[in-house]
Specification:
The protein contains 4 helices and 35 strands. With 506 residues, the protein is mostly beta strands. Keywords: Copper, Metal-binding, Oxidoreductase, Signal.
Length: 506
C-alpha cells in the first residue's frame, strides 16, 4: 500500500483519462528497473496467456466506482470520510467466468486504487501501486478488466496508504451458475471498525502508532485508551493482545449500534448470510441471539458444514453461514473481540420488543462453540490434489508494538523498492508457505492472486488468522504469474512494514 499524499490537500489540476495502454507503459517502466533476477512483469506475455487460458463466458459486466469525499451519519454524528457513493459501497455481482469492466473515477484530493480482495485475477488488475500499477491520481480514471475465475464472497478496497480504514470498500459476489447450496434468502453483512472523521483520520492514527509504545506496554490487566491507542484489549481466542487501535464505533452495514441496521424475514426461512470483515484492527465474533449458525464457506470456498453458536472473522476474512430464522425480534451482534464493544443490528420476523445493543447473548457465553478456521475442512470439490511440494517459503512475522517495526523475516517493506527481498515462484510448482508468527500479537495473513489450503485437509482460503507463536503450513499451486503482494491485513501493521512480495521467475 503506497504512502498517500496529505489527506485533505487540494489538487487543482484535472488530468487526462489514463487508458490501459498508458498505465501498462508506466508499469513496464517500473519492471525495467527491477534487479536481477528478472521477474515476470505484471503486463507481460505470461499474464496475458494465463488470462486467455481462463476461457470465460464471454459476458461482460460493467460498473463505475467513483471515489469521492463523503459524510457518514453515525446516529447524528457526522463523519467526514471517503466512499464509493455509500458505506458500504455497491454490491457488484458477476457469474464465474464473466468479465468485469470496472472504471475507477478518482475525484479525491489524493491518489487511490482498487484491490479486488480474494480473486485470483490477472496481475496487472490487482490494484497494488507501485507493484502492479501506478496509483490513480486525482481527476484521473482507471479501467479494471478481468475474468472472475472462482465463485464466492469477495470484496474490494484501496491499496494506497491507510485508505482501507475509510469508507472506500464494497462487495463483489461471484455467483456459481451451478450453486448447490439451498436457501430462501440472502443477506450481505459488512463489519467495520470506525474512527475516520470522528477521533482522527487513519493517516493520523498510523503516525501515532509509528512512534511505538516503548515501555508503555507494561500496564498489566489495565484496559485504557491513550489517544488513538487502546491498551489492555485481550482475547484468549486471539492468543492475547486483540488489537491496539481505539475505535469509537463498530458498524454493521454502515450503521452504529445507536442506529442499528435492520433485517426482516419470515419464520422458518433459510437465509444465507455473507459475512465480510472490512475492519482495520478488529476481529469480530458474530452471533445471532436464539439461533445457531451453519458455516458453509470461508473466503469464498465451500467447507464441510459446521454448526456453531458464533463465528470469528478476522480482518479481510469472509464467512458464509446458513441460519433458519425463528419467530420474533432478535439481536445480531458483532462482538469486537477483546475490545469490550460491539456492532449491533436487529433481525425481525414477527412481533415482540426489539432487543437493545447491550442485550445478553447466550451464544457468546462460556462453553459455546466458536467457529474458527482451524476446525474447518475443505469440501471435496475444492480440495487440492495430492502432490509433492516443490518449494517451501519460510515467512516469519516479526516486530512489536514497542517499536512498531512490523515486517517479514526481520525486514520492513520498502515501498520505494517493492521487489527488494521478493520471494521467487516458478510456474507449475506446488508451493508451501510456512508462516510463523514470532510476535506477541495475532495477524491476519493475506496472499494476493492465489488461494491456498491449510495443511491436513483444512479450508481453502486467502486470508488466515495466525496466532502468536503459531506456525501455519499453507499450500497452493503457482498458476498465476506476476508479482503478488503478501501482507498482514491489519492495515496499520501492513503500512508499518509487514508486507512482502511473491514474484514469478520467467
Amino acid at each position: 500500500m503506497t504512502a498517500p499524499a496529505p489527506r485533505r490537500s487540494p489538487h487543482l489540476t484535472r488530468r487526462r483519462f489514463l487508458a490501459l495502454g498508458a498505465t501498462a507503459a508506466a508499469v513496464g517502466a517500473l519492471a525495467a528497473c527491477t534487479p536481477t533476477p528478472a521477474w515476470v512483469s505484471p503486463t507481460g506475455a505470461a499474464v496475458d496467456r494465463t488470462e486467455r487460458g481462463r476461457g470465460g463466458t464471454g459476458r461482460v459486466v460493467t460498473a463505475t466506482l467513483t471515489a469521492a469525499a463523503a459524510t457518514l451519519d453515525l446516529a447524528g454524528t457526522p463523519a467526514s470520510t471517503f466512499s464509493y457513493g455509500s458505506i458500504p459501497g455497491p454490491v457488484l455481482r458477476v457469474q464465474a467466468g464473466d468479465t468485469l469492466q470496472a472504471t475507477l473515477r478518482n475525484t479525491l484530493p489524493v491518489d487511490t486504487s482498487v484491490h479486488w480482495h480474494g480473486l485470483a485475477l490477472r496481475n496487472d488488475m490487482d490494484g497494488v501501486p507501485p507493484l502492479t500499477q501506478t496509483a490513480t491520481r486525482p481527476g484521473e480514471s482507471f479501467q479494471y478488466e478481468f475474468i472472475a475465475p472462482d465463485p464466492g464472497t469477495h470484496w474490494f478496497h484501496p491499496h494506497v496508504g491507510a485508505q482501507l480504514d475509510t469508507g472506500l470498500y464494497g462487495v463483489l459476489i461471484v455467483e456459481d451458475p451451478n450453486e448447490p447450496l439451498r436457501y430462501d434468502d440472502e443477506w450481505v453483512i459488512v463489519l467495520d471498525d470506525w474512527l475516520d472523521g470522528v477521533t482522527a483520520t487513519p493517516d493520523a492514527v498510523l503516525e501515532q502508532l509509528r512512534e511505538g509504545m516503548g515501555d508503555m506496554g507494561g500496564h498489566g490487566d489495565m484496559f485504557m485508551r491513550m489517544g488513538n491507542m487502546l491498551m489492555g484489549a485481550d482475547s484468549d481466542l486471539l492468543g492475547g493482545d486483540a488489537g491496539d487501535v481505539y475505535y469509537p464505533h463498530y458498524l454493521i452495514n454502515g450503521k452504529p449500534a445507536a442506529d442499528p441496521a435492520q433485517f426482516t424475514g419470515t419464520p422458518g426461512t433459510r437465509v444465507r448470510i455473507r459475512l465480510i470483515n472490512a475492519g482495520g484492527d478488529t476481529a469480530f465474533r458474530v452471533a445471532i441471539g436464539g439461533h445457531r449458525l451453519t458455516v458453509t464457506h470461508t473466503d469464498g470456498f465451500p467447507v464441510d458444514p459446521v454448526a456453531a453458536d458464533s463465528v470469528l472473522v478476522g480482518m479481510g476474512e469472509r464467512y458464509d453461514v446458513i441460519v433458519t430464522l425463528g419467530d420474533g425480534a432478535f439481536p445480531l451482534v458483532a462482538e469486537a473481540e477483546g475490545k469490550r464493544e460491539r456492532g449491533f443490528a436487529i433481525i425481525r420476523t414477527g412481533s415482540g420488543q426489539a432487543p437493545t445493543p447491550d442485550a445478553d447473548i447466550a451464544e457468546l457465553g462460556e462453553g459455546r462453540v466458536v467457529a474458527v478456521a482451524s476446525m474447518l475442512f475443505a469440501a471435496p470439490e475444492v480440495t487440492l490434489d495430492r502432490r509433492d511440494v516443490d518449494r517451501t517459503l519460510d515467512l516469519t512475522l516479526t516486530g512489536s508494538m514497542a517499536n512498531y517495526d512490523w515486517g517479514f523475516n526481520g525486514t520492513q517493506f520498502d515501498m520505494h523498492n517493492p521487489l527488494r527481498g521478493a520471494h521467487a515462484l516458478v510456474a507449475g510448482e506446488r508451493v508451501r508457505l510456512r508462516v510463523t508468527n514470532d510476535t506477541d500479537m495475532w495477524h491476519p495473513f493475506h496472499l494476493h492472486g492465489h488461494t491456498y489450503q491449510h495443511a491436513g485437509g483444512g479450508p481453502r482460503k486467502d486470508t488466515s488468522i495466525v496466532l502468536p507463536n503459531q506456525t501455519l503450513d499453507l499450500e497452493f499451486d503457482a498458476d498465476n504469474p506476476g508479482q503478488w503482494m503478501t501482507h498482514c491485513h491489519n492495515i496499520y501493521h501492513g503500512e508499518a512494514g509487514m508486507m512482502t512480495v511473491l514474484a514469478y521467475r520467467p
